[in-house]
Every structure is written in structure tokens, then in C-alpha cells.
Write a structure and sequence with these properties.
Blueprint (H helix, E strand, L loop, with lengths): L4 E9 L3 H11 L3 E2 L8 H22 L6 H23 L4 H9 L2 E9 L7 H4 L1 E7 L3 E9 L19 H51 L2 E3 L4 E9 L3 H10 L3 E6 L14 H4 L2 H7 L10 H16 L2 H16 L12 H18 L1 E2 L2 E2 L8 H6 L4 E4 L2 E4 H29 L5 H21 L5 H21 L7 H24 L2 H25 L7 H39 L19
Antiparallel strand pairs: 1-7, 1-8, 2-7, 3-5, 4-5, 6-7, 9-10, 11-12
Length: 596
């Protein structure tokens, strides 16, 4: 559900605004209307300073040497020195005095390095060449010429050779390695000693930026002497907040927030639905007069996920993963530690749905002899006859879930429009609810012989009349009837083409669960083939195939079980329920800054 909000309007002297914002930041419950990004040079400067500190936290916390400028510079110099030393080993040291004498005589030494295949022995007949080194790849040689002659007639490029001696290069490498080591040790020490200080500096900078943006977002009236700020806080905090405001002698007005005020949204759900509020936030918060979709999203997403995983064994793995995230210090797989309850809940659902689908680590439980007969009868396995054709029970169940999900979405949409805009604006929507939901209910009662033939005819006629009048005649009261008929025909076309595709989308629940089960069974069969009839030394290979195979299948199943149920929720359900998710999340000014 959406937490009720109270709107606060504050009147204060402009010179007191900064101090006021600092005070309410300590209270941590007021969401002040403010800019959402830097709006001028001052706020831009604060933002950049905070961003520098945030990046510094990331570097220090991870001890990320590759992002440290000094470490990167030292590493580059070390790599260059090691490369120069490796090349110098091929050339060896030179006699500095002899090279000096050659230069004084007008001669120049040219160093060349060419691939073995490109080296031409005839060069030795034309030029003063001395071969220095040869290996499988390169030939290294020195060519002597006179500086006055140039080297335009020799078409091989010169190569660079370090002027330092091998001992000098070795000394440089040793010094650079020591410098790199010292820098790494310094960064580790800095993590232990300075990380908390940098975090505090970042928190203070963000708080300063928040206060500035809140002050900048105020409206100045009465010749810039008075600031008017608007804020929102949960109604349940009114008594405590107003007592604190009264102590500070601040003039304010408070009233219940309305949808027109566009207050920020704070969700408040029970322990089960609260785990799924993250998914609602991924799409977007509801506006103030909308329904919170989380209570409906939670059980259906759990059901969809469990269907897509489709394996009770994988449910146990998810439960184990959730407990590891909860109790093992330092263990945070893919940043899921704060969502350990969600992971565990999904694991529990996957275990029970996997039992119903009859799969445990790829094993078909419906064919296992020790499974109780009562449980075997509950499993969604085998075929079912519909209209003279047979279909998998699990596939029919998936489509039935989809039909129910979409019908529920249509009812919620009709109730929502009625609540926000009145019954007149919802007549057409209620007409479709009567036609589709009422039609399905009557059909179900007739097929199960709850309604006899006469009662069924009466119900069908009543549904037909009510839905036709609602969809084609009174869909917009007060408008030209011909326009209403045209609008009804257009709605009919959209419904006919859209609903069928929406319902068929739910087959993915069956398909993904079936694919995961078949792939798990394939790994089991492959392992069994390796094991043979009289296994001895084959056991390690059997375990390797089964463990790696199921690990891959588990990972792929988790990915599919996240993406596809999310799509069914965000597209099929939200579209048919009219949910837009354009609300703004409740974000009060607070001293508690979360590093993200």
C-alpha cells in the first residue's frame, strides 16, 4: 500500500533557509521539493567534488591499483624498463669510449632489428654491417656509416636501444618494483586508516549539495525576504515532526497531501510483499492516487519465477544461497546480500512448484517409485483432453494462470479509474470486464453443470446486453452516439488483437520450465552414460558432468526466470491494469548517506 503523506509548507526568512535545511536534515523524515540535478555553477561544483570523493572511495575500498594514477604511472615505467632490459640483453653492453671515438671520426652506429625472413645477407657486401644476435624470429645487427652520408639509401628502419647499461637498467627495474610495492602497501594501509574519513567527507559533501539544491528550489516572495519551501513526510510521523518543528519556532502549515500535490511515494507492505518492492521500483513508483501494484506483483512473480525454474532441486539451491547471503560475512554474490529474503522466498516457491511439476535436479518424480501416490496425483504431469485434442497439463495450467492474471488486471484497472475519475469514465472498462470476466465465469459454471441450459442462456444474454451498451453506446456519456460506436469498434479491434497475444505470452512459463527440466535430464543421462553399468573409476567424471551441467542449467534458468516473469508483469499485467508508474520515490533529507 501507499503510505499516507502530509504536506508541509514552511515560511522563513531567506537568510535562515540554510540553517533550517540543516536542522530538518537531522530529523530525516521530510522530503523537500528540490532540484534533481545541479542547476548552476555552485551546485555543479559541489556535485563534481562529491563525485571525486565517490570515485576515491571506490578506488580505496577495492584497492583498485589500475585506477590509481600514481600506481599506473609507476607500472608503466616498470613495464618500459623491463622491455628495454629484455631487448638490451640481445645487444649487450657497448664500450662507451669506442663509440665516442667513432663519433669523433665522423661515423655513426645504426641499430637494426628485422625478421629472419626479411634479412638479406647481401647487405653485408654493400654496407658496413655487424650481426649482433639472431634467434628464431629476428636478426639484430649494427650498420656503420658516416653521419655526413645519411641513410636514405638503406631502407630498413632503425630500432631504439637503451643507452643505459644492463646493470643500470637492472637497477632501475629493481627500484621501480620497490616503488610499485610501496605504493600498493600504502593503498592497503590507506584503506584501513583513511576509508572511513573519505566516506565521511563524501557524506558531508552530499549533505551540503542536498541542502543547496533544496534552498535553490525554494520560491522567493515578498521582495526576496521570505522563502517558501514545500515538503512531505509520512502522516504517521506527524506528531513527532511537529513537536520538533514547534521547538524551533518555525512557522508552517500542514495538511493531508492530495494527488494534485504529487507527493513522493513510500510503499508500506507486509513482510512478504515488502521483498518485491524492488521490482516495483524498477518499473516506477505509483502516483499518489494509484494502487500499489506490489501486493499483486509479489505472489504472481513468485509463481512465474517458480514455473520458469521448474525444478525442486534448484529451489533448495536458492534457499541455500539466500541463507549464505544472510549469515556468511563478506559473501555478496552479484550484490544480492540485501535481497537475501527475496532469494530465499523464490527458493521456497521454486521447491514447491518444482514438486508439483515433478522435477528434482532433472529427475522425473512422477516415475520414481518411492513418491507417495497422493503426491503423484497432485503433480501437473501428463495430458489433458480439451475439445478432442490432448495438451500437457502444465501448459494448460500456464495459460489458465495467464487468463486469471489478465482478468485480475482488468478488474483492478476498472476499480482504479472509478476511484480516480468516477464511474462515468469507467463505463467502457467495466463493459469489457463484464464481457470477458463474466463470460469466463459463466462458461466455467456451465461446463461444470452448476448452471443449467436455461440459466446459462439468461446469463449470456444479460452479459451481452450490458457489455454492448457499456462498450458501444455509453462508453462516453454525453458524446455523439455515432462517435461512441466508432470508439467501441476501435476498442474491440485492440482487445481482439491484444488479449490473444497477451494470453499466449504466458506459454513461456511452461516452455522455460520444460526446457530447464529437459536440459537437467540430459545432463543426468550423459552422466549415466559415462558411469556405465559397473562403475569404478568413472565416478569422478560422472560427478563432474552432473555438477557442471546443473550449475550451467541453474544459472541459465535463473536468468530466464527473472527476465520473462518481469516481462509478463511489466508488459502484460501493467498494460491491462492501466498502471503507469510515474510516481517519485520518497527521499527525505537525511544525515544517513548511502554510498552507492
Amino acid at each position: 500500500m501507499i503510505t499516507k503523506m502530509t504536506k508541509y509548507t514552511f515560511l522563513l526568512m531567506s537568510s535562515d533557509t540554510a540553517a533550517f535545511l540543516h536542522d530538518i536534515q537531522e530529523l530525516g523524515v521530510l522530503d523537500i521539493t528540490r532540484s534533481r540535478k545541479p542547476v548552476d555553477a555552485a551546485s555543479g561544483k559541489l556535485y563534481r567534488e562529491a563525485e571525486v570523493l565517490r570515485k576515491e572511495i571506490d578506488i580505496v575500498e577495492r584497492c583498485d591499483f589500475s585506477r590509481d594514477e600514481q600506481h599506473r604511472s609507476l607500472s608503466a615505467k616498470l613495464a618500459a624498463a623491463e622491455e628495454a632490459h629484455a631487448e638490451k640483453l640481445h645487444w649487450g653492453d657497448v664500450d662507451v669510449e669506442k663509440v665516442k671515438a667513432l663519433r669523433e671520426a665522423g661515423c655513426r652506429l645504426n641499430y637494426h632489428k628485422v625478421p629472419v625472413k626479411k634479412f638479406n645477407p647481401a647487405w653485408a657486401q654493400q654496407y658496413a654491417i655487424v650481426e649482433i644476435d639472431r634467434d628464431d624470429k629476428f636478426v639484430r645487427f649494427i650498420r656503420v656509416d658516416r653521419a655526413s652520408e645519411g641513410s636514405n639509401n638503406f631502407q630498413v628502419a632503425r630500432t631504439h636501444v637503451a643507452v643505459e647499461s644492463l646493470s643500470e637498467l637492472a637497477t632501475q627495474i629493481s627500484a621501480l618494483r620497490e616503488a610499485v610495492k610501496r605504493r600498493e602497501e600504502a593503498m592497503i594501509i590507506r584503506k584501513e586508516e583513511e576509508l572511513s574519513l573519505i566516506r565521511n567527507a563524501y557524506a558531508m559533501k552530499v549533505q551540503e549539495l542536498q541542502r543547496y539544491l533544496a534552498q535553490n528550489g525554494s520560491r522567493l516572495v515578498a521582495d526576496d525576504y521570505i522563502s517558501v519551501l514545500t515538503g512531505f513526510a509520512p502522516t504517521e510521523n506527524d506528531a513527532k515532526l511537529q513537536a520538533e518543528l514547534d521547538k524551533k519556532s518555525i512557522y508552517y502549515l500542514c495538511e493531508p497531501a492530495t494527488a494534485a500535490d504529487n507527493p513522493p511515494i513510500q510503499l508500506k507492505n507486509n513482510w512478504f510483499a515488502r521483498n518485491f518492492e524492488t521490482l516495483t521500483g524498477m518499473y516506477g513508483m505509483p502516483v499518489y492516487d494509484e494502487f500499489d501494484p506490489t501486493p499483486v506483483l509479489a505472489p504472481f512473480f513468485l509463481l512465474f519465477w517458480s514455473f520458469c525454474m521448474g525444478d525442486a532441486g534448484y529451489g533448495l539451491l536458492l534457499i541455500a544461497l539466500g541463507l549464505l547471503l544472510r549469515y556468511k560475512e563478506g559473501f555478496d554474490l552479484l550484490g544480492l546480500k540485501k535481497h537475501w529474503r527475496l532469494v530465499t522466498t523464490l527458493g521456497v516457491g521454486t521447491f514447491f512448484i518444482g514438486i508439483l511439476l515433478g522435477t528434482f535436479f532433472g529427475i522425473d518424480l512422477s516415475k520414481v517409485s518411492w513418491i507417495p501416490e497422493g503426491l503423484r496425483k497432485l503433480m501437473l504431469v501428463g495430458k489433458i483432453e480439451i475439445g478432442g485434442a490432448s495438451y500437457d497439463v502444465a501448459m494448460v495450467a500456464a495459460i489458465a494462470i495467464g487468463v486469471f492474471h489478465i482478468c485480475l488486471a482488468m478488474i483492478i484497472k476498472a476499480i482504479g479509474i472509478t476511484k480516480r475519475a468516477g464511474f462515468k469514465e469507467a463505463i467502457s472498462v467495466w463493459g469489457w470486464v463484464i464481457l470477458i470476466v463474466g463470460g469466463l465465469i459463466v462458461a466455467g459454471l456451465a461446463l461444470t453443470n452448476v448452471l443449467d441450459e436455461t440459466a446459462t442462456k439468461i446469463a449470456v444474454i444479460a452479459i451481452g446486453v450490458l457489455s454492448v451498451l457499456s462498450i458501444f453506446i455509453f462508453n462516453k456519456p454525453g458524446r455523439n452516439p455515432l462517435l461512441n460506436v466508432g470508439a467501441g469498434l476501435w476498442d474491440t479491434y485492440q482487445m481482439a488483437t491484444g488479449l490473444l497475444g497477451d494470453v499466449l505470452s504466458y506459454i513461456r512459463l511452461y516452455a522455460l520450465g520444460l526446457a530447464g527440466g529437459m536440459l537437467g535430464a540430459a545432463f543426468n543421462n550423459l552422466g549415466q552414460m559415462v558411469l556405465g553399468d559397473n562403475p569404478t573409476w568413472q565416478w569422478p567424471f560422472f560427478l563432474l558432468i552432473v555438477i557442471i551441467g546443473h550449475a550451467l542449467n541453474f544459472a541459465m534458468s535463473c536468468l530466464g526466470a527473472f527476465v520473462h516473469p518481469l516481462r509478463l508483469t511489466f508488459v502484460e499485467y501493467f498494460k491491462n491494469s492501466g498502471y503507469e508508474g510515474k510516481g517519485q520515490e520518497y527521499s527525505p533529507l537525511s544525515n544517513q548517506i548511502e554510498n552507492k
